[in-house]
Amino acid sequence: MREQVRKERERKRFVHHKDLTVEGDFLSPMVKYLGEFIPEEAQTAKFQMILPKKWSHPKLKPICIHLAGTGDHFFGRRRILMAKPLLKEAGIGSIILENPFYGYRKPLGQQIFSSKRI
Asked: Is residue 17 in some structural domain?
């Protein structure tokens, strides 16, 4: 069982021409406090990091955290419209978080982007 969980939690890395994309997840800290109210699908927070293959400065590694707006499911829009241009134009990396109740964290049976409970 532990081996299966470990394999599921391995980070995925994709090396592109000028950048490195890392996908990963972590247990939401809210599970500790409100676990019984958070649907299982929303308990694991998912993220993508878009990083340069090589940082331009040996000590400074600027990173912007992108949170989703209403109706913004998955990572694509923020990766293409914000993270990639930031990296290309200013050398700034990005961490893109998936909001609970959206995209991969959307509970089964939830319609559009409304939640059964808040």
From this structure: yes
Rounded-to-integer distance, Cα 74 and Cα 6, Å = 23
The predicted-structure confidence for 37-76, as pLDDT tens digits, reads as follows 888 888 888 899 999 988 888 899 999 998 877 666 677 7
Residue 38 lies in a domain: yes
- CATH number at 85 reads 3.40.50.1820
pTM score: 0.70
- The total of other beta-carbon atoms located within 10 Å of residue 39's CB is 17
Query: Which residues 6+ apart lie within 8 Å of 12 measured at CB?
Result: 22, 23, 24
Helix, coil or strand: residue 63: strand
| 10 inside domain | yes
Name the residue range of residue 34's domain: 2-105
Q: Which helix (H) or strand (E) is 58 found in, with range? A: none
pLDDT tens-digit profile of 74-116? 777 888 888 899 999 999 999 988 877 666 666 677 666 555 5
